[in-house]
Amino acid sequence: MEIITQTDERKIGTLTLVVYILQAVSLFVGVTALVGVIINYLKRSEAAGTVYASHFSWQIRTFWWAVAGSVVGGVLMIIGVGFLIWAAVYVWYIYRIVRGYLNYNDGKPMPV
Length: 112
Known about the structure:
Elements: H1 6-25, H2 31-47, H3 52-75, H4 82-105
Helix pairs in contact: 1-2, 1-3, 1-4, 2-3, 3-4
């Protein structure tokens, strides 16, 4: 098992914040969420054993559930409810970003 130094943990903390920012920016420029989830996957092993590991999992789940919800909304456009689903996903996505950031800011892990 690798020992995590304070410097390493600080770097992972900074990356966690960067991903929350990328997710927030993706509300206007969608591709940044993809960049964020790639960072999560590339650095996930380095976050293991830190409070940020739960944030990485939270961010990854947020991304994939938002993608799934968006696809379902797109498919259901043909019967007219897709816009409602997209709106619900949009609000849920904002909630996930805000809740994650607030826990990050307080130094708390996310529920698993």
